[in-house]
Amino acid sequence: MKQKTKKGKNITIKFNIAPSKHIGFINFINLAVNQDAPIELTFEKVSKSGEIDESKLVGQFKLQGKDSGSLMQLEEEIQEKERIKKKQKQRRKQK
Asked: What global pTM score does this model have?
């Protein structure tokens, strides 16, 4: 996420996404872009005991693709990887 301060300084916050969650995150983003639907952004505070406290801040925004051709290519690559994983699972089950 990027933002600028009042003085024009760029500020960036990066969120790490575990490799096991990449496909789910990409599918979520593709869904939002393809349906032209807004994304609602909320924050949660999770205590050490596991209690969840939802933030009072909320926002909505829409995503726009910079290059739809490369987005389609990325989506095709992900679908191909998913097909390969499914085939590998089926082979393991058969053995």
From this structure: 0.54
Within a domain: 45: yes
Which range of residues forms the domain containing residue 49? Answer: 21-64
pLDDT digits (tens, 9 = 90+) for 2-20: 889 999 999 998 988 888 8
User: Alpha helices, DSSP H only, in the chain?
Assistant: 22-34, 68-94
Distance in angstroms (rounded) separating the CA atoms of residues 63 and 43: 19
For residue 21, the one-letter residue type is K
Is 74 domain-assigned?
A: yes
92 DSSP β-pair partners: none
Q: What is the pLDDT of residues 47-65, one digit of tens each?
A: 889 888 888 888 888 877 7
Dihedral over alpha carbons 85, 26, 40, 13 (to 10 degrees): 120
